[in-house]
Amino acid sequence: MVLKMKFEEAYSISHHSNYTIEEIAKIHEKSLETYVTDYKGYFACPECREAKLNFVNSKPCYFRTEQDDSHNDDCSLKQLTMSAHQTEGFVSNTENKEKIGRQLQSIMTMLLSDKPTAVRTTRVQSNATSSKKQSSSVSESFREKQVPRKRIDTKFRNEDYDCYKFFYGKVRAVWEKDEKRPEYMKLLLFHAKESRLLCRIYITGKVFSHIPQPYKDLNQKVCEIAFLASFDSNRNSTEKSYQSTSLRFGHFFILNHP
Questions:
Q1: Which residues contact 39 (CB under 8 A, 6 or more apart)?
Q2: What is the pTM of this model?
């Protein structure tokens, strides 16, 4: 069991917005003074915005929770994460369909959330002391292990392969027919602010028929996406400019469409 201690994004209290690790790394590299003045000490959990996060300038960079700092009791990012073997069992169990839907919606809500849950004008202070008092009151449901999460618009790591994860982010979505396999469709995900391809999702005709029509009509549009998938290390690598996977079921992804 692995506790979620590293993050690929964080909520900026000073800017009232979520930032990916790559965005903050670029700011840090471009101007250390700007980073220290405007960003350092203002990072919090992107979901509950209670736990303090610190930027770690390493290779690769990441956000890290303060030791023993506490998330909100309802924050899904405070939970333990499943192993690769456990995610396979979770996905294969048809009884988890509704749970998968709720988790996808929770991620989408986080992506679309622009306003802080509590207004702050100062740097985030550690709440490690209060976390000890709260630990005994955490509900059993939030001690269950979660399927890991991964931003689709950040660099892949070795641990991001061969394991089901919820992938998510803001992208430009493009639908295409697979010329080599006419029975397949491809959903191409491009970076929302750049022209680079992030991911190709292959979808069989059977699965495609279960995808809501508004999703199919969303072509060449910038939108938020969340999907459940596994990327095979035999087909992908950290050296590739984009990754490829397939969609197992139609309800394994959601798009935020106009």
A1: 12, 14, 15, 19, 24, 27, 28, 55
A2: 0.79
